[in-house]
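FIELD: query
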Amino acid sequence: MEFELDSLRQENARLITKISEIESKKLEIKWVFEARTNELHNTIAKFTTKIGKLNAKIVELKKNNTLLSVSEQKVLEEISNCLLKHRYQMYYLPINLNPL
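FIELD: result
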């Protein structure tokens, strides 16, 4: 009977040691995961900021592109009007048959 009790005490001590080792590894893994999770949250925050800035740039570029399109259209209209006016003037320009 005493032998069985000693044997059970030894097994209990071995299991308590094993449980302590497992708990220690569990804590270590928890710390690693918490550190990695924090790192990932920081990375996500950085990329969210970058995405916001890029979206703002896209909006600005689209706005500028629209403004350029409008101003390009105005320039083209002015050139067209000048060419038409010039062509009209050339067509109706009096011809001087007696050059100096």
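FIELD: remark
The CA atoms of residues 42 and 48 lie 10 Å apart.
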